[in-house]
Design a protein that fits this description.
Layout lengths: L1 H22 L5 H13 L3 H8 L2 H12 L5 H21 L3 H23 L3
Helix pairs in contact: 1-2, 2-3, 5-6
Length: 121
């Protein structure tokens, strides 16, 4: 019973953080929503079914990760947010090694994200 209550509470917390992440790009939406799905799946069928029917889950997890459906505009928006998030430490850190690593991470997102979402189904 304590485990179930803890999972419900933590699932609610991760749901709130994931939803806030839609509007604040520093918080990652998808990992928090995946955590919510896991926690609520293991605590309550009713909460899990509620969560998987929400518009945000359908948009950010179901369509993007499971069905691999994203528009080119959506992909550009996603990569722009990744660029902004990685550009901040790129400017703040005066280290060539850090800047090279951040550039590699960004280009890996561009290459593998493009491949993942734009390859023929």
């Amino acid at each position: 019973m304590l485990k179930k209550s803890l999972f419900i509470f933590l699932g609610g917390l991760s749901f709130v953080l994931g939803t806030v992440g839609i509007f604040i790009p520093i918080l990652p939406t998808v990992p928090f929503y995946l955590l919510t799905a896991y926690l609520w799946l293991n605590s309550s069928d009713r909460l899990y079914n509620f969560f998987t029917q929400t518009r945000y889950y359908q948009t950010y997890v179901q369509k993007m990760l499971i069905e691999k459906k994203v528009s080119k505009k959506g992909l550009i928006k996603m990569l722009t947010m990744v660029f902004i998030i990685l550009f901040i430490p790129f400017i703040l850190f005066d280290s060539l090694h850090v800047r090279i690593i951040l550039a590699i991470v960004f280009f890996a997102h561009v290459i593998f994200g493009g491949y993942y979402f734009l390859k023929k189904r």
